[in-house]
Write a structure and sequence with these properties.
It is a single chain. It contains nine helices and eight strands. The chain is an alpha/beta fold and about 250 residues long. It has a single domain, classed as Rossmann fold. Strands 1, 2, 3, 4, 5, 6, 7 and 8 form an eight-stranded mixed beta sheet that branches. Bound molecules: S-adenosylmethionine (SAM). The site of S-adenosylmethionine has 21 residues, from strand 2.
């Protein structure tokens, strides 16, 4: 990640929950994944490890996080401990784990960062790694308007990507569903939430009062980060009616 990418800016000031639907959406997905002690679990793009820590509380048989970013990987290794648990630095689309070896796969705020053909590659890997009946959870950005024109979609994509310095390519709910179905999944649960990542109420809900205050103090001391965060908040607010967070749990058929 370069230092202008907004998830990087946020993590540098101590924000731990960086996904669009916040902690609430993550907990909804984990509740529906129902991780058991005998489960082998893979997480694509664990980032700063918020979900990894939640998953490990369920003591699955194994946990494997596949993260592209080496620096994130170093921090993740402090969180992900235990004989059967590991972090692999690499691309989820190229995961070399054995076919059908996993019971649950989760990936949050990562498919949206990729072009559609790359999304398909990653979903395909989730499908390959899972046993039949295994579950895949995603947590991504969604375009609210079904049937949105290609021009309007391109304009939103361009605005979000250029200001955030992160490739941002959301899909509509039916597009997310169909991209999963085409790769051999049946979507079992869908949940949408407003995109409120940088709204004070969501920050307190996600981070708790203590971490929120510590983040606020850090932001006040870092004018560059403050400017970037305010810009991002304005950007998300200006698209408030057009984008939301979406979570899906799908079963390999
Ligand atoms: C916006 S962060 C989300 C992190 C975390 N899942 C969360 O929700 O807080 C995106 C992360 O995805 C990672 N990432 C993006 N594409 C990836 C891929 N193909 N394979 C592995 N990691 C990837 C990036 O390195 C970055 O850490």
């Amino acid at each position: 990640m370069d230092e202008n990418e907004w998830p990087w800016v946020l993590s540098k000031v101590g924000k731990k929950v960086l996904r669009p639907g916040g902690r609430e959406m993550t907990m909804f997905l984990l509740d529906n994944l129902k991780i058991e002690k005998e489960d082998h679990v893979v997480e694509f793009a664990p980032g700063i490890g918020f979900t990894a820590a939640q998953i490990l509380k369920d003591h699955p048989e194994s946990y494997t996080g596949i993260e592209l970013n080496e620096e994130a990987g170093k921090n993740l290794r402090d969180i992900v401990q235990g004989e059967n648990n590991k972090i692999i630095i690499g691309n989820a689309a190229k995961a070399s784990l054995e076919d059908g070896s996993q019971d649950k796969v989760i990936g949050e705020a990562m498919l949206t960062m990729h072009a559609d053909h790359r999304k398909v590659e990653i979903i395909d890997v989730a499908h390959r790694l899972l046993r039949k009946g295994g579950l895949y959870a995603i947590h991504e950005l969604c375009l609210v308007e079904e049937g949105i024109s290609p021009e309007a979609k391109a304009a939103i994509t361009k605005d979000l990507s250029s200001h955030s310095h992160v490739n941002t390519r959301p899909l509509t709910q039916s597009e997310w569903k169909s991209i999963l179905e085409k790769e051999g999944f049946r979507v079992k649960k869908v949940w949408t939430r407003p995109m409120m990542l940088l709204e004070p109420s969501r920050i307190i809900q996600d981070e708790g009062i203590v971490n929120t205050l510590s983040t606020v103090f850090k932001v006040l001391r870092k004018p560059k980060a403050r400017k970037k965060i305010l810009e991002m908040r304005k950007l998300f607010k200006s698209h408030r009616k057009e984008i939301c967070a979406i979570g899906m749990v799908a079963e390999k058929i």
